Amino acid sequence: MMFDDMPVVGPVTAECLRQYLAHSEPPRPTQDELENMLARLAVVLKDGKLSADEAHIRLDIYWKALRDLPLASLHVAFRKLVETATFFPSIAEIREAARGGAVGRFTARRNTARVLVLKHERQWTPPVEEINEAQKVAASEMVSAVSKGMAA
């Protein structure tokens, strides 16, 4: 659904969406968890021999590039890669394997909630109260009185 096709939600709904976003952040991996997954991949997949320094540098680069992914997405990616990869995967290959599935749907729901809150903040205006008959008559009388006063 495109931004323009989404409804402008009211303040109550926007606050509910903010609460959902604040409390539904999926857990991110710790550096140890990610290093453990990468080490297991290195054991089962073909990889060039790295010195200890090179391995440390690689782990640091992979950590910085992948730490934003939800832990569940990384587990899905590593399971896929163990089954399908021949060589140790690049960062791009890990990110690609992490897309989709239940985690992808969860991410899509969070993104939709973010967009609805943003649209509320940019476009929502309080509803204008319609005036009742008595107010219409009073306003009409005021306009008539002002008009008569100007004509005099």
Lay out the secondary structure.
Blueprint: H1 11-23, H2 31-44, H3 52-66, H4 71-84, H5 91-98, H6 101-123, H7 133-151
Helix pairs in contact: 1-6, 2-3, 2-4, 4-5
Compressed to H and E, one letter per element, the order equals HHHHHHH
Strand content: under 5%
Mean pLDDT: 88
Q: How would you describe the shape?
A: rod-shaped
Q: Which segments are poorly predicted (pLDDT under 50) over 5 or more consecutive residues?
A: none
- Mind telling me the C-alpha Rg? 29 Å
How many DSSP helices? 7
Task: Jot down its keywords.
single chain, 152 residues, mainly alpha
Give structural notes:
There is one protein chain. The chain is an all-alpha fold and 152 residues long. The protein is 70% helix and 0% strand. It is built from seven helices and no strands. It has helices at residues 11-23, 31-44, 52-66, 71-84, 91-98, 101-123, 133-151. The protein is rod-shaped. The chain starts with 10 loop residues before the first helix and ends with a helix.
Compact summary:
With 152 residues, the protein is mainly alpha-helical. The protein has 7 helices and no strands.
